[in-house]
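Our consortium's second objective concerns turning raw sequence data into structural hypotheses that experimental partners can test. To show how far this objective has progressed, the report includes one record in full. It was chosen at random from the queue rather than selected for favorable results. The single chain below, 400 residues long, was entered without modification.
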Amino acid sequence: MGIFEVKLWQKFCAGALGALLLAGGAMTVAEGAESTGETAAVEQSAQERKIIINLAARSLALFEREKKIRLYPIGPGKVSTPTPVGYYSIRSKDVNPTWIDPSDPEFSIPSGAANPLGYRWMEIKGNYGIHGTNKPESIGHYVSNGCIRMKEQDVEALFDMVEIGTPVEITYNRIVVEKADDGTIVYYIYPDGYDRQPLTVAEVNNWLAGYGVENFESDAAIEKKIEASDGQPTFVAKAYPLLVNGQEVKSKVIIKDDITYLPVADIAQALKVSLGWKPADELLISSLGTAVGIEKKKSLYCNADDVATLFKVDGGLNKQGVYVLNPLSQDVIPLVKDGVPVNESSASVEDMTKQVELAAQEEAAQELKKAEAREAARKNSVQKDSSSVKRTDKVVVSKK
């Protein structure tokens, strides 16, 4: 219930009798030996579990080996008696606790339907704990004196899945970003129940950047999401790590609306390929080819269908959830050194780099010549038009 709650535990199991009651009956030596392996496995799993409570989301999550295995709604502390954030652990576990009125220690409520603690208690710090409740309608609201209330069926299930010493982390995060096993990224924004965490679009973008999808949610959409603060999931995209010629790059491969976006700047850098961008034409121009470009928050991408044209690489998503790109065969990317074709087996990285740079320089020079020719033609046209106007003026004046 809260910081002023005092618990009184009635211990009625002791010695061999208590062991028999907890076990539900006698166990033979043989049966105990057979269950040793299973018990060890269960204990190992329990030791790898931890509880994370998000007060803003009013939820409790149980993790095992960094994977969320359970999620429960909770009723944390009121605004006037907030649940403290921090790092704790399960310090004790008790069944059927007795509640004592903090204002009148002589008054107590034994275990039963009227007990505010429900039928399970797990201490995390002094009088703070995780427990059941006889008011299930309060779950999902800020209602307690600082403890964590749970629905009775939920707290009993959790009670059986954790042991004394299980870590408990209590946070207050209005922004939650999650990645599913298939790479799907969703984010949530919760109300500021404790009025302690105002949010900005930049802060939400920073959270999304940790998952590589910040360029695929517009600032306007984020602003609208902050205003709603509804705690509902918003799908952003699917994100996967990218491996280019054996080298992992910083940016992610993004799949959204059935389009696969590849980060061209990182790919060009990994392959040592020159790359240019014509925003007016939405064209990407590399030293190996040209393709349509897509700009997302000042970052450039190409469609996966165009990556072979632009970089002479090919690949896709493997079973491990990694997008892999490797160079195509050498006959697709011919190398020339001193005017003589270079055999694929003898081509070095330096040869390829020099060839790419030369091709880029030649293309740039050609573009410059074309621009100069267009400018010269424009000036010539202007001069002709000017001469024509002057001659016409003279003829008109002479007639007058």
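The partners drew two points from this record. The mean pLDDT is 82. The chain has three domains: 6-171, 175-238, 242-328. Both points have been shared with the crystallography group to help prioritize constructs.
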